[in-house]
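Tip: read the tokens left to right.
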């Protein structure tokens, strides 16, 4: 049985972890549109856009083993399979490393 946990959060910078997958959306207009559809108020939308522009999240990630996945022009399924492929490669690497 694997000895790892997958944790989805906006707080990865606050926990000790071995790997981080950071999903990004660099099209700020698209980001605004998505957040508006979620019902975010304008100052929350601007805060999120500013965080992307100034790479606040990237700067907060202290884990050396990280990957950033650009989600622009990708379906949810495409992003899912990209994340899954990365997780499977980590699991495969750890399996051989521990063996």
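Filled-in amino acids:
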């Amino acid at each position: 049985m694997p000895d790892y946990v997958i944790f989805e959060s906006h707080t990865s910078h606050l926990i000790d972890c071995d790997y981080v997958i950071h999903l990004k959306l660099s099209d700020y207009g698209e980001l605004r549109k998505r957040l508006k559809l979620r019902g975010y108020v304008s100052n929350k939308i601007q805060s999120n856009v500013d965080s992307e522009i100034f790479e606040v999240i990237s700067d907060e990630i202290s884990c050396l083993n990280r990957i950033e996945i650009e989600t622009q022009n990708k379906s949810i399924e495409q992003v899912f399979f990209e994340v899954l492929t990365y997780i499977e490669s980590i699991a495969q690497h750890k399996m051989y490393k521990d063996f």
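The two ends are 14 Å apart (CA to CA). The chain has four helices and two strands.
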